[in-house]
Structures are given as structure tokens and as C-alpha cells.
Amino acid sequence: MEWESNATARYQACWDDIERACQRIGSSREEALTRYEAAVQGELARRAEPVVTVFVLDQILQDIGAPEAMAGVAPVGAASGPPPLPTPPPLPSASIVAPSLAAHATRRRNAALPKEEGKSPYLLGCSILAVSMVLFIIATTFGMPYLVKMEWEADRSQCAANIAEIGQLVSLHRDPQTGYFPPLAVGQEPFLFGGEAFDQLEVSLLRCPSAWYEEEDEEEILSDADYIYLGYAVRNQSEMDSYIKNYVSKGGVIEEFMAQDRIHHGPTGLLERLRPDLPDAAAIPVLVEWNVYHFPDGGHVYYLDGHVEYLAMEEAFPMTEDFFSSIYDGMAAENLGKCEDNLHGIWETLVAQAEANEQVYPPLSTELDSFIFGGEALSAVDAALLRCPSSGYEEVAGSIYGSDYYYLGYAIDDQEAMDDFVTVYRESGGTNGNLPQGDGLQGLHRQIPRLRMDLPDADTIPILVESEGNHADQGAHVVYLDGHIDFIPYGDKFPVTSEFYEGLNEALDFRHRAQCYENLVALGQLLKAEGEKNEGNYPQIDPDGEPFLFDGELRETMDIKLLRCPAMAYEGESDEDIIYDADYIYLGFAIQNHAELDTYMSIYGNEEFGVDGLNQSDVLSGTAGDIPKLRQDLPNPENIPVLIEWCGFHSASGGHVLYLDGHVEFVSMESKYPMTTGFFDSLYPDAEPESPWSLFWDGVRQGFLEGP
Q1: Is a pLDDT exceeding 60 seen at residue 634?
Q2: What is the pTM for the complete model shown?
């Protein structure tokens, strides 16, 4: 076959490169061969699964000091190299590779020793090597795919046995009066059966043998079972849509959902609870495996009549993207009820504070960087209530982003009022404490009162609005002044609209920009003071830590949090975290255009000079002219950037720049240097292309997955 001959040529090329590499080593040949053998044997010993020898050759070549041997190897698919593998060969097994490599290394070592009269260990080694290579290629080409296929088939057989055993368990533990299969489990992850069947379950059966998880306890398996149970007779995607819609309407509350004997489907259709006497039992799924554990993609399905079938993805319902997408929607909806409980608890706290403050609700917080109530109400509320269970975050208290629920403190009941609020907020400098705290704020369109318990039309005035994206993009909760809570689909009505959230983000970003501006002003003053202590010279670049950050005594004494833009800060961040990933770029030289930046980066990226070379230079010379180090006495300081904010932190595309004269400017992206794509691309150019060995490894691995 054509791909077999290609594989033979490619493997031979690998060994030829090893030969050339060892020849270039010279006097250290014996030591290199010893390390080569140890490295390969160690790699094989660490891996339980099959290994391709060429996967470690590149590392070995670099380790023994001969990376130049790679120069003659063309990338996979290059015109000058061997032809690409239409179907690359599979991985060899450790049992096949280890003896041949060990023998090969031994022969190579013997060849370097003084020869005895009349004997040629080198020729003998070459002969054994040739035979070993032929056996190696034959074994890997013809044998390994079948071994892998056998292992896959064994896992699939065990998986089918698992799902069949679980299916028999739920079939045996039916309700004695109605004959219904077990209900969904309460207090467990969604779409897992409960009742006596759950109590009798061997939890390990819920994990597919092909899953890549390490050792897990029962709680971990139950939190992420590999088989889905619906509890109702769902035969197609249309019925699945009705099932999930009903599930979501119950807020994922299992008791309410399973209390129904039937679910309405369309004008006249009904979805019935699972029971053994339903018609078309061979077409009704009881258990469905997640679609990620087998090759090709697909999974097992246990049907009501007791048979198990393996379906490839998109072959038939329920092994379809639409089915699994519906499951994800249902999993997100499970937390709707918990989220509503959280909001009710927050509302009770706010009402208590209003009753203690002449019916006036709390003002916005002046401490936390978000739209959240402040004062005694924030101290009194249970911080855990501020996080929607679907958001995925556990820590809340003190978070820079505060809460999953927005609180504005004013009676904003339509988009016109929201636009007025955003305008006044911007005019106040993006600071909660600067907002009017009397009867309300005066907008362009009308007066907007503070939230009070005695306002009219309380059932239309939002108090709390849930943030976006917590429930699979289905919608968000809103708490109204009269205490009732609605779940509103996105775009259905105010305030769950794109215009409302865009207004909030604009206002919050304006606050972040104001604080970011203040950070850079403070940093500019610190750098100027540091320069005054050092004869006008600004600090050098840090040679050991994060690239493009100043070094010296200033770093030891300053507030490191000044290096973090407020829009990017997160709770629990250490000073080391911030230094490792600072949000402002410091180059240490008076670089005013892209040509000067190219000169700077050519030295910065030079292994011989690098950062140390920059720190030891007072002036950089290049085609763009001389570039001096940052000093206080440089001409035109208003045009010389000192600190540049990384782009992308603010809703308005661009970032802040601190100039040598101390002023800070927000520069829109691509409007002028340094806020350009070319500037940021120069700092971190694209990574080098993958080596020929890694490309070859990718091809071999793909061949291993595809089999013979």
C-alpha cells in the first residue's frame, strides 16, 4: 500500500537524522549515546500507553547538543521532504520499541569503542539495526492498529454492559402501583434517576470505561455521570423540545416536574412517564450516553425494550447535537429556582433596611466596583446570595465585580430612564458616591426618584436585575419593588434587553476608565520621583520577571495594585500575580514610532544582548536614528510614551497612555502610535512554526486514531 511505503521512508529518515546527529557530536559520542538510551528507556517506562519513538527524538537531539541535525528535515508536506502520509502509520507499543531501541543504542556504543583485530562491530551493529527497523515498521504498520481497535472494542463492550445493567436496575425498581420507572433524583445532578434504584446503584457503573478521568470517589462520579436519564418517553427532538421547555418552566425543581404524569406536547400530544407497557418500546430511549467517550464520536443508548445500541453522532435521535444542546439548557434551568430563592433573600434584606431608613432603599456602594447596594445592607446580606448558582463562581464577598445581580438605587422603569441614568453617571465621573443622594437625579427627559417603598406602580419598577448569561442565555430574573420576581427571556421586555445591559456596561466601563486613569497618574508621579533620585534617569527594565516592566527600588515600595487596570482585577489576586501579568507596558526608552520600536525589539530579542544589553545602553542606534533612555530632560516629553495600557480592557477600543510630561490620554485603537495593532504584535510576535518532528508526530498520532 502507498501509505506503508511512505511510512517506511519517514521512519528511515528519522533514524538517518539520529545517525547524522551522533556523528556531529564528536568526542562526546559515547556520553551522548548513553544519555540517548537512558532518555528513551525513561520515556517508555513512564508511559503505560503506546509510544512512538520519534516523539522523543527531537527532545533527545536537543538534549545532547545537536539541534542543528534538524536543519535538514523538511516539514511534513513540504515539497522538498518526503511525501505526506495519506493515512499515517499508528503508534508502536512500548513492548516492541524498548528492546529494539536498547539493542540499537548498545550497538552504536560498541561501534565507538576500539575495534579488535579481524572484527567489525560497526558493520554488525548496522546489520542488526537494519533488521530491527524492518521488524519495527512491520509490527507498527500491521499489528498496532488491530491491538488498539481491540482495546477500543473492549471498552465499548464494557460500556454497553454498564448501561444495560443500569437499565435493568431502573426497570426492576418501578413504582408498584403505577408501574412508572424511577423519578429524577432530587439533590443530585440533573438527569439522574432517584428512588430505590439510586439507593441500589453501584456508582462506578455510571462511569464509561473509555472516560479519561483519574481515580474518583463516588461523589465525583455522581456529580458528572456519563449516562443521561429523562424519566419520560421522548422519541424525537420535537418531543425533547417540549420536555425541556416544561422542565425550564418548573425552574428545574424536580419535585414539581416529576409530579406530572404527562407533559403536553403541541396542541394534542402528550409525553408520558416511562413504564414498560408503552407502545414502540424499541424506539424509546431510557438511558443515553454522553457523546465524547468513543471513536468515532457517538454513544450507547438503552431502550425501553431492553436492547442497547451504539449510535454515531447525528445517526439518529437521541445521538444528535440538538439533543445534547437541550440537555445543557435543562442543566442551566435547574438553578432557576435556587437563583430565585437568592433574589428573594436579598429583597428581604433591602426591605428591612428601607423600613429602618424612612422607607428609602440603600444607596449604591462607594466601596465595591460594581452596581450593588452599599451601607448596612451590604453588611447585613448573606454574601453567598449575591452569586447565581449557575454562574460558576464560588467566592463573592469583596469581589471587584461584586454581585451577579445589578442594583441601581433609582426607579428606572424604561430605557429612557436608563439612558438618563448613564448620562448622569458619566457626568459624575463614574463614581457611585458622586450621584445625587437626595430625592433623585435629574435626567434629560425627566426626574428619576430614589427607590422608596411608597412609590406608585411598584409592580413595574425593577430593584434587582440579574446579569447576562447565567442560564444558558435563556433570560434573567428581575425583582420588582412590590417583591414579585419574574424570569424574563432576553429581549422580551425591559430591563432584560441588550440596550439595558449595554448601558450598564458603558457606565461601569466609564468608572473603570476613570480609575485606570488615576492609576497611571499615580504611577507617573512615582516614576518621576524615582527619576529625581537617580539624576533624572527612569528605572531600568526588569531582567528576570514579567517582560516590559520596570525594576528597582520603586517596585519594592509601591502599591503593586496600581499595575492592574480595575477592569481586569479579580478577587484574591496576589502581588506576584499582578507583577507576572501587569496591565501596563514599560519599555524604558523614548520610543515614539514603529521604526524605533523595531530597533528596540531587535536588541530585546537578541540572545547575545537581550534585556541586560538594553539596561547597559544609554542610547540605541538603528535605521530610525538614536533612541535615548527615558530621562526627565528629554525634549518633547508630551510625545514620549512611558506606560502603555494593554488594549482590550475597555468597551471603547483602545487604552490609556502615560506620557513623559505626566499627562494621561485615552488613545483609541489605530488612531496613533502606540495604540496600534503593529505595536502589540511587535511585543509578542507569532510563535515559531512547529518543528518537523512535532508535525510528523501529529501525523502519526492521527494515523493511530484512525486505525488500519
Answers
A1: yes
A2: 0.58
